[in-house]
Amino acid sequence: MKRLRLAMQLAVMVAAAMAGVRFALGRSVTTVETYCPFGGLETAYAFFTRQRFTCAAGETNLALFIALLGLTLVARKAFCGWVCPVGALAEWEGKLARRLFRRPDLTGAWRVPARADRMLRVVLRAAVLALVLGATWTTGELVFRGYDPYYVLFSAHGHDVRAWSYALLGGLMVLGLLLPMAWCRYLCPLGAAIWPLSAGGLLRLARDERTCTACGACDRACPQLIEVSRAGIVRSGECTLCLECTGACPTDSALELRWAGGKP
Amino acid sequence: MRAPAWIVPALVVAAAAAGVGGARLLAAPSVVRDFAAHAPGTATRRAVFVVDGVRCVDTAERAAGQLAGVPGAIRFTAWAARAKVEVTYDPAVTTAEALREAIEGPVHDDSTGEFRFGVFAVREVNGVEVESIRR
Q1: Can you give the three-state secondary structure of B8-53, one letter per residue?
Q2: Do the Cβ atoms of A177 and A89 come closer than 8 Å?
Q3: Domains, in order of start, for chain A
Q4: A residues 182-221 near B, CB within 8 Å?
Q5: What number is the ipTM of this complex?
Q6: pLDDT per residue as tens digits for the range A161-172
Q7: Quick one: average pLDDT of A162-191?
Q8: Size of the A and B interface in Cβ pairs below 8 Å
Q9: DSSP at B108
């Protein structure tokens, strides 16, 4: 499953890079932002109030966003762990940071106290989401482009990408080494938008206390720093169902994927 | 109830397919502009263009501006994300070729007062690549 996830992440990344380069070379009229579900949320207001799309957003963005909502209702933040190329890069950076700073887990050089971490995840991400949507819906422009790591990375110097966009991206990458998954945990507006649905997702990881040896391998493997070994059922809205924890678990059936509400 | 691990990638793939496939159900234009009313009963035609340079609402509005005042142009509709433009026209007055030339013509830049060339390039007309038409 680990290899399949890596293959899917790589495939999406290559497809995004190719879409960006093909557009930049004039071989395609479809930009890389066409496949961003966040563009669907940005244009949703214009679509549902005026039956028009905002700026360069279109029906593919909106349809992908609606599909993402459906996916999240069932499989939580699986999009972040299996598809999002920014999430994949952040995760790989986290693994690099683990080696660089010789950490047993994916915490990197800086540790944020648990309470501050929870606050930042909710407040900061919600603030970024509100700011981006407010500005987009007010101006009718995709104002987030120049700040969006996905667009800056894969648009091959697309429209609205400036020198400061690369500086910001570089800053985020350095931050990602010191504080792995910083973008996903504290800044990603799409993550903030789907978080409430993710928390109620139907698929959940369940730990069997009878067979679990409390070795903590699952905690150390989790890119989202969820304390799996302390939960009976992982209800965190941050869980991406990447299944790194089940892969790291040395005990058969101590950690399983289950449907919510079902009998054990 | 236990769920197999493969259900996660299967759901991801299904959602991606539903998103891309379902886009057709949500088709709505980025820009619609009516130039002139046509007399009821008059035959009209539609020409569909794929235009390099139409990439957002602003650029689509500018492309619409290229057709404002062109005799026979009745309605302009653009889907910016696909660079697609559909023009309804009166075939007794104009042709798809004339409309293409109008779209590709010099664009007046309001900020400098000058004309800019090569802002729009039509890639396809009614599903046929312009390069193959020129050949």
Answers
A1: HHHHHHHHHHHHHHHHHHHCCCCEEEECCCCCCCCCCEEEEEEEEC
A2: no
A3: 2-197 (no CATH), 203-259 (3.30.70.20)
A4: 203
A5: 0.90
A6: 999 999 999 999
A7: 94
A8: 137
A9: E
